[in-house]
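User: I'm writing a short methods note and want a consistent example. For FAD-binding FR-type domain-containing protein, I'll paste the sequence; you return only the structure tokens, no commentary, since I'll be parsing the reply automatically.
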Amino acid sequence: MGELSLVQIALIVAHFIAIGLGYALLMAGAQSGGPSAAEAEAVNRHSEIKPSVGQLQWRVVLGMGPFAAGSISILFLPILRSRWYTILTGIPFERRIVIHRIFARLFVGLMLVHGVGVLVLSEFEGLAFPSHNSAGLIAMLLFLFVAATAIEPIRRAHFDFFFRSHYVFIAALVATFFHAPLITILACAPVFVWGCVALLRVALVLRNRTTLVSCRTLPGDVTELVLARDGFHAEPGQYVFIGDPLLGWELHPFTVSNYAPRGGTDLRPAGTMRFLIKAAALGPKPREWTSQLYNAVAAWEATGAASDSSSESSFNSQAAHLSGSQRRTLAARGDAPLHMRFEVLVSGGIGVTPNAALLEALLAPDGPYGRPDKIVFVWSSRGADPFATWFPHLLAAAADDDSVELELYDTSVHTKSDDSPSRLRSRRIHPDSSSSAGSSPSSSASEEQEARRRATSSSSSSSEDGYSSAVSVSTSLCDSLDVRGGRPDIGSLLAELPERAGVFVCGPMALVDATVAACSEFGHHVHTESFLF
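Assistant:
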């Protein structure tokens, strides 16, 4: 996710606050003079009993209700998942999620001031008001349940539970309607728009058939999907929402790893998109969708159906669900450091996917971003297998290009700080030539592991300072790729550049933070990507 400037943040917050205040004032006017007669009588009664609790305190507490309802309406504007809304606002979906959380916290705060304040000031006799306070208490408890299940530890560890529990807000809105009908109707206007957009999106997803051209598992607990849909277009840096009917109707966001409008470097058919999806946590019965997908594809491979294109159990030609890109292109975003003489792409693990798509676009003769004088592609991974299997054709093309400098690091190899050179076992990994979209893997997972064991041989070389050592990873597509042990020294790499460069980084936060710090020190223009929502 790219960095927001202070001006952009101010404009975004001011935009939504203005809408929120407008709704809150409209709803406050809808109250027609304040509390009901019964509530006003209670206010007067408690003001006489407790002089410290006067009209002002009650009006402040009761006045928080319309403002809380106004923040409800704003909650749904940022999460409108529409490509046209993204283009109109210029704010990508993952940034609007942050705005959604800000207003959610604001709503919870206002709701607690209103609900708890009424109970405290009335000494918990507020429930006896001959009005709708019981419904209000039920609504408050339901909204608190939704908020509690959305805290980060629960959201990260039990996303499915978090996602489904969010729909409790429908029951909470119903209870709110019985508490304050007119205010709820006004507040639900954006909710109605959100519901219409959601239904339209579902209809478009079902209408526009997306074909699963091929799928297979790759080393590193990664699933490769190649999808095709007529009239669909995505560029580097964009992500789309993908769903598999066999695993449920929920859509999940994934970055476009390669896009081939005229055929890709890995010989995929024109108009196809390739996705590499990392399994979160494997097990016999995983909860994560990414792990379920990996297990399903691995089971399909183990049955031998992968080698039989006519098999009825084949995944090929299965329908998939694909929702439109939720981010403007890099060229349309003013913060992306494109069209510079030096471009540096820094990746860690599966974070290579957006940078691989960008590298493919930069190497294309008629690419959308032009051709820089120098491209430095830095990729660190736990193990050497991803270098030979995830993007073999792309790395082979980059290795043959004099304008590209490849910096590949195997972080599973721990380097030594003493003078003795660190040793790194070399692997001779032969990637499956079926990485093209129209092919399928012909060996099971166990056969692949056995092939890797047979292919292992030892040879190494070390750098002069003993910090890293190189390994020759030979493939049928690329004679030699120098893979170093340890982690990249981003600061030293950026310090050697002769002029200001454009830097794209995606990966673990430690790598992103180190790259951003180095860019700040040496004056490079940095753009960050994140998979976190």
